Structure formats: C-alpha cells, structure tokens
Amino acid sequence: MFSMERYAWKAIVHEGKLLEYKKRHDEIWEDMKSVLKEAGICNYTIWSVGNELFGYYECEKGAEYAAKVQGKSPVVAKWNEYMKDVMTMAMDSQTGAQAKLEQVFYLP
C-alpha cells in the first residue's frame, strides 16, 4: 500500500502580524500555487497558536522532490522574501525549503 510522505514545519509570526499573514495567504499568488502543485504538494494546512505557526502537507512525489522544486523556484524565493516582514522561518541549508520537523509519533 502506498503511503504518501508527510512534511511538517514550524515558524514564528511576528508580533501583531497574524492578520497580515492570513491575508497574504488568502491572496496567495497563482504562480505560487502552481509551484506547490508542481512540487506534488497537497493537503497543505497551516495552523497558529499564539505567534507560532505549524505547517503540514503531503508530498505526492516525495518530500525530497517537493523540497527540490521549492528550493530551485524563483517564485518561492520571491514569496519567502515577501513574507519576511511578517514571519521568521528556518530554512534547510541543504534543500532551500522549510526545515522539516522530525516525526515522533504516528497513528495510521
């Protein structure tokens, strides 16, 4: 049975910037959505608690492929620059994508 690879990341939204963060995602660029789809990313969800953000998505083509596509995309680089004034996110120096969280529990 095929099990889709899952990917989770975390970030910090700057104080008082959560509404702006949400607004920017409500108005996410079409070319950004296209890159995420090209990367095989689906079921992408972001939650917040306080000023912490937790993102989760599934990778139809594998996490390595998703990270590679995002890491090489000028659209993603532009998006990350655009979001810098509302959030801080650690990036993986190897892939250029969001740093992947380590899974510590899973109940299928």
Automatic annotation (TrEMBL):
<dbReference type="GO" id="GO:0016857">
    <property type="term" value="F:racemase and epimerase activity, acting on carbohydrates and derivatives"/>
</dbReference>
<dbReference type="Pfam" id="PF05336">
    <property type="entry name" value="rhaM"/>
</dbReference>
<dbReference type="InterPro" id="IPR011008">
    <property type="entry name" value="Dimeric_a/b-barrel"/>
</dbReference>
<protein>
    <recommendedName>
        <fullName>L-rhamnose mutarotase</fullName>
    </recommendedName>
</protein>
<dbReference type="GO" id="GO:0019301">
    <property type="term" value="P:rhamnose catabolic process"/>
</dbReference>
<dbReference type="InterPro" id="IPR008000">
    <property type="entry name" value="Rham/fucose_mutarotase"/>
</dbReference>
